[in-house]
Amino acid sequence: MIQQAEELNLLNFETPLLNKILENGQIREFKAMDSIIDTGQIISYMPIVLSGLVKVSRVDEEGRELLLYYIHPNEGCAFTFSCCTQRSPSEIKAVAEENSKLLMVPVHLMDEWLTRYQTWKAFVMQTMSARFTELLKTIDQVAFQNLDIRLVNYLKQKTKSTGSSLVNLSHKQIAEDLNTNRVVISRLLKKLEDQKKILLYRNQIKILRAL
Predict the structure, then answer these.
(1) Which of 121, 143, 165 is a domain's end point?
(2) Tens-digit pLDDT profile for residues 122-144
């Protein structure tokens, strides 16, 4: 209980709210690649990342996937907020990108906490604003940038999110995130390697400063 309280203190919630979270919330751990939310799922808990990294994607009817954004520690998912308040099926897919610990808040408490706790309201508003900005960046990249530029931005975002210069993903996984095919991604990655901007290994990419 003490450890959980210390982890939640990083969210800067007021003491009465922290007590409510400890009383009603659940802390769950997910391994890398574990599914957290599936498209079409009715969400009963709203997740907040305490540690690790969560990838949020949009999946179409044919199973094609497009990366929307990452959720970092002390952040929540804007789409989940929307689904929770409207009690509608999830329109996104959330997967643990690495081993992660999440706080699961029961959805029936969200509306009550918005009116009762100022720090909760501020957290929800900040989350919505931050995710909206990231979605605009994603739209801009898809609409206005060539795939090679999108790939470079993707790799930069990945290293920034993980804090590591190593990207542990296959060419197929990157292609799925960027909604393209593996052959194209492999060709563009080889071009970046020829330019000495990256080093390619099996299911791993080393990002160099030149990127």
Answers:
(1) 143
(2) 998 988 888 888 888 888 877 77
